[in-house]
Structure formats: structure tokens, C-alpha cells
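Order emerges. For instance:

***
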Amino acid sequence: MHFVEANGARIPGIGLGTYDLREAAGARIIEQALRLGYRHVDTAQIYQNESAVGEALRASRVKRNDVFITTKVWVTNYAPKDFDRSVKESLSKLRLSEVDLLLLHFPPKDVPLQDTLGSLAKAKKAGMARHIGLSNFTVALIEEAVRHCPEPLVCNQVEYHPYLNQRKVIEACARHGLALIAYTPIARGNVKNDEVLAKIGRKYGKTPAQICLRWLVQQNAIPIPRTSKIERLSENLDVFDFDLSDEEMQVLFGMGSPKGRMTNLAIAPEWD
């Protein structure tokens, strides 16, 4: 397994996104992923599947210390009195004493960022999370967060795939030693019909999705593809036996634009 090091954290270089993988069916997919070799599972309070992740982890019989579990605090729990309680609820659902990584799911709008970062750092100091980080933060907000957080931040989790240019955010993360974790890394499956990616894929005997994931891995980004199909689980892991050339990397970089964004909720910040 390939790892990315960031401010003291050692994060498995590919993970399983679990958005919409709920209840028994979701737990089965997550359990199967762990049995196939996934060692990084990403969940969130708003996904309503922390219990399914916990159930899958126990059923898989993989040792707890071998799996990197991330969850994210939802924006309605950012007030100091709610933050601590919500993290304890997450741990209870996961049936874990701590998560490996605890993130703010989106930048706060109704609570001062400094206060929310204080709550996040407090959760780490209390032993509820081994590491803490950000999700959906812009360049300016990354700068502010790093300046004000009393504990080291290890990542920013953002949408990133070949159709979305994230150069500014990538540079901000690099400046502060933050890992970039990429959600929606295969553009919700839209890459499968991309002829440019298919052509590169034919050279290596890989699918367009695998070309995307390899492109991310070669940037030291950490893709967390989500799938509900068992056969895709193995495919998404099978990206460590080839290298894209510099020219091919540039072809994929050239596909990106700010208009390629697929996730734009009302609570999102003003994107870079």
C-alpha cells in the first residue's frame, strides 16, 4: 500500500468513499472493500452511515490499527456545545474510541472559524481523533485555518478530477504540508466515456477511471472513489502497477477548468 505523509499523519494513498452506502447493503460493500485490501475508509455524519462503517470494520476482521478511518463533523454541529457531543455520537455509531482523522465538512458560516478550529483541536487533545483536517476549504480559508488552529492540520479534502482545475488549492496545501484528499475522483463515473482517457488506458490495459486515479496518485493526492459495485472495488485499487508519462499527465491537466465542478451545495464557500 502506498502512503502519503502529512504533518505527522501517514494516510493510505487510496481510500473508499462511502457517500450513500447505507445500512446492510452499504455495510456489505464496505466490508468487501476491507477484505480486498482497502485500508482507508471515509465517512461523515451527514452520510448517516457511520454505524454501517463500524459494522463493516468488525465483520471484516481486519485489525483496527491497520485501517485509517475518517469522519467529518457537519456544519449544524459547529457550535462549541454541539461539536463535542456530535463527535462522541460519531464514535458511538462507529463503535470506536477514536477516529484516525476528523474533518470540518465545510467551512463554517454561522460560527467563527477560530471557535470551530478550537473545538476540532480540543477533540484531538481529548483523544477522540488522532489527526484533524479540513474539507472544502478555499485558499484564503486554508491560510486562516492554519494560522489559527492550535493543533497541526493534515489535509484538505476537496472535489478533484481531470475536469476540475484545482491548481490554487493544491499549491496552498503544498505550502502548509497538507495532504490533498480527492473526492469525486472519477467525476461520478463521467470519465468512462472519455475517449482521451480511453486511448491512454488502452496503452496500459486500464480503464478511464484507473487512468484518473493514477493521475491523482502521481500527484501525491489521495483519491477516495465511491462505488456500490463489488467488481469496481478491485479495479479502483489496481492502479499501482504502471506510471503515466509526463506528457500524459499534462494531457489530463489540460482537461481541467473551473467549470468542471460537480459539487456545489448552498453551504459551499466562494470557490477559488
